[in-house]
Write a structure and sequence with these properties.
By secondary structure, this protein is mostly helical. It has seven helices and no strands. Helices cover about 70% and strands about 0% of the residues.
């Protein structure tokens, strides 16, 4: 289990199910989650409360990149050294961007940066 689903809000839980439906289709997702298709449809398309066990199962069927995209809105893309260097140069020249970039670095890599 990569994500503690108890800490997710209702919208994030719903997006996990939607992502799995996009990936596998409604029928296959319902079968794997061991629920009816109409129940799954209600979970995805209404404000009906989604049981935590269903969200756990669905989250386990997604890759870490897919979960990151769904939960945090961070889409993982391939980046080469030139792109990374361009971001650093932009941060050096643009104070607002630099503040944003450094805050994101510390938010997601702060512990790593401290240890390094």
């Amino acid at each position: 289990m990569l994500t503690d689903v108890t800490k997710l809000d209702d919208e994030q839980r719903r997006r996990i199910l939607k992502k799995l439906v996009e990936k596998l289709g409604l029928a296959q997702t319902a079968k794997l989650l061991e629920i009816g298709r109409s129940t799954l449809y209600r979970y995805v398309n209404t404000n009906q409360n989604i049981p935590l066990e269903i969200v756990r199962k669905a989250a386990d069927m997604l890759t870490p990149d897919e979960l990151s995209d769904v939960i945090y809105g961070l889409k993982v893309v391939e980046v080469d050294a030139t792109t990374a260097l361009s971001v650093v140069i932009k941060a050096m020249k643009d104070e607002k961007f630099r503040n944003f970039f450094v805050s994101v670095l510390y938010q997601y890599l702060g512990e790593y940066l401290k240890n390094t």
